[in-house]
UniProtKB/TrEMBL annotation:
<feature type="domain" description="DNA mismatch repair proteins mutS family">
    <location>
        <begin position="698"/>
        <end position="714"/>
    </location>
</feature>
<dbReference type="InterPro" id="IPR007696">
    <property type="entry name" value="DNA_mismatch_repair_MutS_core"/>
</dbReference>
<dbReference type="GO" id="GO:0140664">
    <property type="term" value="F:ATP-dependent DNA damage sensor activity"/>
</dbReference>
<comment type="function">
    <text>This protein is involved in the repair of mismatches in DNA. It is possible that it carries out the mismatch recognition step. This protein has a weak ATPase activity.</text>
</comment>
<keyword id="KW-0067">ATP-binding</keyword>
<dbReference type="InterPro" id="IPR000432">
    <property type="entry name" value="DNA_mismatch_repair_MutS_C"/>
</dbReference>
<dbReference type="Pfam" id="PF01624">
    <property type="entry name" value="MutS_I"/>
</dbReference>
<dbReference type="InterPro" id="IPR007861">
    <property type="entry name" value="DNA_mismatch_repair_MutS_clamp"/>
</dbReference>
<dbReference type="InterPro" id="IPR036678">
    <property type="entry name" value="MutS_con_dom_sf"/>
</dbReference>
<dbReference type="GO" id="GO:0006298">
    <property type="term" value="P:mismatch repair"/>
</dbReference>
<dbReference type="InterPro" id="IPR007695">
    <property type="entry name" value="DNA_mismatch_repair_MutS-lik_N"/>
</dbReference>
<protein>
    <recommendedName>
        <fullName>DNA mismatch repair protein MutS</fullName>
    </recommendedName>
</protein>
<keyword id="KW-0234">DNA repair</keyword>
<dbReference type="Pfam" id="PF05192">
    <property type="entry name" value="MutS_III"/>
</dbReference>
<dbReference type="GO" id="GO:0005524">
    <property type="term" value="F:ATP binding"/>
</dbReference>
<dbReference type="InterPro" id="IPR005748">
    <property type="entry name" value="DNA_mismatch_repair_MutS"/>
</dbReference>
<comment type="similarity">
    <text>Belongs to the DNA mismatch repair MutS family.</text>
</comment>
């Protein structure tokens, strides 16, 4: 059957068999062609023309879609961003030198987690490949994260926590990997991962086997054990994940990846736990709606000057510290830069000259650095040496250590300066990269080629004079080499010794023995010139690859300096203050602001205080109308805590933060329609996660929890959760609890560490003004009716509503007297009432308030009133 196929098609099928899950980019001359089903996918996803040529294996016309090779990177990156994998199949012989079909082979596989071309990846983000592994008993889960572009590689091992693997999702939210490899992933997790934009790739089990994975790591690092990386004890599944990640990376990159020089361990005891929902809710690095940086804490804080600084800041933001000394070390650095403006601005000027040293180092080790990369490296290393001499001696340890880690690369600067021209072309294709004087051989060849060219110029001139053909030209053409071009009207002047080579539309081309001889010299010189330049460049890259470790360390140190200087700049610009970090469990904030909202309400943000002193105040119940400012206030407390623990100044006039081990935030009734779980189910799962993991050192922010179910259930659950968090004997976590269940305010009376707060509102006539100021005590008014009146609800209804509120108020205040039915309703959790089959209640249950317009809501109330009236008569 294959008899009719061309040899190239046979090659294609061989490649496809080797890489069945990849789109094969098959190099043919100046194009990458894709065939068959690949071509259909490429045509659809890249919106390019689908044609057909030749025959496929079955003898049908073969679909074909091609892209020009010089634009391939863009096309590949678009395919990869859509979750495809691309295998690049190159001609690995020079087509000019072989007869028949040239050999081809796959030289790279590009997957979402292993893209490294600069044009394909943004620089501010690390780009992680993640590997996931569970032990046989599914008790532990190991995760490895590898950024192939910089060589950063770390692992974590955690207790597994059930089917939906929240512990994995948290790390996914933290590090936002592009791709996750695993033997298999539970369907629920797989769905969540793909919602987060992570491509899940099934990778063979053998790579995750303990012995195989371990050997891969040991061989790669050239060590006898993993002890030096802290990976021997209790890190079995993490090591398996790391080994598999390395195997996968090596297999897709087809190279040794020598820039992956180490593996580090991230321990839960060293970093604040931030689960996926909390990171999302607080909009730390991404907004709730999507990827955009605007509106995030990262966006407010990221004033870094370098890609390395930006990546370091992002990493710090999702990994706040848990050590007073460690945080203070960073704060000292920020404070230093705040107080030394000249040093800060001088440093930032120098940082501006630093390209992405870490990634250039990666490309050097990988072997795909361009001539321009080397020039950028040289100027960056020059800036680095400027920084080393610029920073004074009396800087705090954090800065001194980073400064000490900046390498002295004067030999590299000198080498690149001697080897590469000032403004080299983008690639080596046409030469012109190596500077004169670097290699005597190269200079000689250039001389030869140059003198050959001037001989040609002189030859053209003398032939014009000799023959009298003024328009005679000596031209170069890739196929025919040099020839003398004579146009038709002048052909009669051609001397007899000219040998005809070719006829063109306008005239004819000739050569002479002398020209032929020079042509050979020039062409040979040019060819040798190009290959010598390539050789010299490769030698240079090899020398530079020996410095990989030093470049990486320097790059990281630049990132650290950049972050501190940037945070100082933000602190001054936004009037932040240095937080006090303590080992106790108090949170004291004076004039705290929400760092993001304050930027959106310039000059109008109302600061607020927070006091959770571990004694009388542990749980703050916050009431207030919709839009009063409850969420903003609570989120500000959480964000200030996170900022303090990454070592940043905070938006407050004073803050004292007792170390927080975990921040939990939950917003009631969040929509999770995509995953098909009911709102209430989601709320309760999130709640369970908090209650099961919270410690006395945690900070819990609950916003309208219990909203997703009926009032009675919601209230009961909210109250039970609150009691649990309050703790019976010892103190529980610092808790901020916003609620619309006004009945909850009475908890203050029965639990000793609960305090009520509310947001002040000013009423002037029919107007309600939110003052955004939090004040002690519960709110005594519901502005719902007020809002209803403003919305044009008939006075009869709003008056009646006020009456009902009064009745309920009496009932709640003097339980048992004024409002027996209501009291019974509230106590249902303590003393379950028999189920009531009331048509009004049934109808109420069926209502989805979020879908109703005010008018529809009003109609519903009338309807319910009618139903209730039928059942119980009038009141
Ligand atoms: P709630 O949670 O009580 O419904 P939000 O916290 O969502 O209210 O606040 C509603 C809006 O009020 C916010 O979007 C913000 O623009 C504004 N706001 C909140 N707090 C403040 C504040 N302290 N100062 C100024 N504006 C604020």
């Amino acid at each position: 059957m294959t008899g009719k196929m061309t040899p190239a098609m046979r090659q294609f099928y061989t490649m496809k068999e080797k890489h069945p899950d990849c789109i094969i980019f098959f190099r043919m001359g100046d194009f990458y062609e894709t065939f068959g089903h690949d071509a259909e996918v490429v045509a659809r996803d890249l919106d390019i023309v689908l044609t057909a040529r030749g025959k496929d294996r079955e003898g049908n016309r073969m679909p074909l879609a091609g892209v020009p090779y010089h634009a391939a990177e863009t096309y590949i990156s678009r395919l990869v961003s859509k979750g495809h994998r691309v295998a690049v199949c190159e001609q690995i012989e020079d087509p000019k030198k072989v007869k028949g079909i040239v050999k081809r082979d796959v030289v790279r596989v590009i997957t979402p987690g292993t893209v490294i071309d600069e044009s394909m990846i943004g620089s501010a983000h690390a780009r992680y490949l993640m590997a996931l592994c569970q032990d046989g008993g599914r008790r532990r889960v190991g995760m490895a994260f590898l950024d192939i572009s910089t060589g950063e590689f770390f692992v974590e091992e955690r207790d597994a926590d059930g089917e939906d693997m929240g512990v994995v999702l948290s790390e996914v939210e933290r590090y936002r990997p592009q791709e996750c490899i695993a033997v298999s992933v539970p369907p629920a997790l797989e769905r969540r991962l793909s919602e987060e934009g992570v491509v899940v790739t099934t990778f063979r089990e053998e790579a995750f086997e303990p012995a195989r994975a371990r050997t891969a790591l040991l061989e790669h690092f050239g060590t006898h054990s993993l002890e030096g990386f802290g990976c021997e004890e209790g890190m079995d599944t993490a090591v398996r994940a790391a080994g598999a990640a390395l195997i996968y990376a090596t297999e897709t990159q087809f190279t040794a990846l020598s820039h992956i020089t180490g593996l580090s361990v991230r321990l839960p005891a060293e970093q604040m736990a931030l689960d996926a929902i909390t990171l999302k809710n607080l909009e730390v690095t991404a907004t709730i709606r999507g990827e955009g940086k605007e509106g995030t804490l990262l966006h407010v804080l990221d004033r870094t000057k370098t890609a390395m600084g930006s990546r370091t800041l992002r990493d710090r933001l999702v990994n706040p510290l848990l050590s007073v000394a460690g945080i203070n070390r960073r704060l000292d650095a920020v404070e230093y830069f705040c107080g030394n403006t000249a040093v800060r601005t001088g440093l930032r000027d120098l940082l501006r000259g630093c390209a992405d040293i870490e990634r250039i180092a990666g490309r050097i080790a990988y072997g795909n650095a361009t001539p321009r990369d080397l020039i950028n490296l040289m100027t960056s290393l020059d800036a680095v040496s400027g920084i080393r001499t610029f920073l004074p001696d009396d800087v705090p340890p954090e800065i001194a250590d980073a400064c000490g880690a900046l390498g002295d690369f004067s030999d590299v600067i000198d080498l690149i300066g001697r080897a590469i021209v000032d403004e080299p072309p983008a690639n080596l294709k046409n030469g012109g990269v190596i500077r004169g004087g670097y290699s005597p051989d190269l200079d000689e060849l250039r001389g030869l080629s140059g003198s050959g060219r001037s001989w040609i110029a002189e030859f053209q001139q003398s032939e014009r004079e000799r023959t009298g053909i003024k328009s005679l030209k000596v031209k170069y053409n890739r196929v025919f080499g040099y020839s003398i071009e004579v146009t038709k009207p002048n052909l009669h002047l051609v001397p007899p010794e000219y040998e005809r080579r070719q006829t063109t539309a306008n005239g004819e081309r000739f050569t002479t023995p002398a020209l032929r001889e020079k042509e050979t010299i020039i062409t040979n010189a040019d060819e040798r010139l190009l290959s010598l330049e390539a050789e010299l460049f490769a030698g240079l890259i090899q020398t530079l690859a020996g410095y990989t470790g030093g470049f990486q360390e320097t790059g990281r140190a630049v990132g650290v300096l950049d972050v501190h200087a940037a945070l100082a700049g933000v602190a001054l610009h936004n009037a932040y203050s240095r937080p006090e970090i303590t080992d106790n469990t108090k949170t004291i904030i004076r004039d705290g602001r929400h760092p993001v909202v304050e930027e959106m309400t310039p000059g109008a943000f109302v600061p607020n205080d927070t006091l959770i002193d571990g004694g009388g105040d542990q749980v703050l119940i916050i009431t207030g109308a919709n839009m009063a400012g409850k969420s903003t206030y609570m989120r500000a407390v959480a964000l200030i805590t996170i900022m303090a623990q990454i070592g940043s100044f905070v938006p407050a006039s004073y803050a004292s933060i007792g170390l927080v081990d975990r921040v939990f935030t939950r917003v009631g009734a969040s929509d999770d329609l995509a995953s098909g779980r009911s709102t209430f189910m989601v709320e309760m799962q999130e709640c369970a996660n908090i209650l099961n993991n919270v410690t006395d050192r945690s900070l819990v922010v609950l916003d309208e929890i219990g909203r997703g179910t009926s009032t009675i259930d919601g209230y009961a659950i909210a109250r039970a959760v609150l009691e649990y968090l309050h703790g019976s004997g010892r103190q529980g976590p610092r808790t901020l609890f916003a609620t619309h269940f006004h009945q909850l305010i009475e908890v203050e009376g029965s639990l000793k560490r609960v305090r009520n707060f509310h947001f002040a509102v000013k009423e002037t006539g029919s107007e309600v003004i939110f003052l955004r100021k939090i004040i002690p005590g519960a709110t005594d008014k519901s502005y719902g009716v007020h809002v209803a009146r403003l919305a044009g609800v008939p006075a009869k209804v709003t008056k009646r509503a006020e009456g009902i509120i009064r009745d309920i108020g009496n009932g709640a205040a003097s339980s048992g007297k004024g409002g027996p039915k209501y009291t019974q309703m509230l106590l249902i959790s303590d003393n379950p009432a028999p189920p009531v089959h009331n048509p009004a209640v049934e109808a109420l249950r069926r209502i989805d308030p979020d879908t109703l317009s005010p008018r529809q809501a009003l109609e519903k109330i009338y309807e319910l009133r009618k139903l209730a009236g039928n059942e119980e008569g009038s009141e």
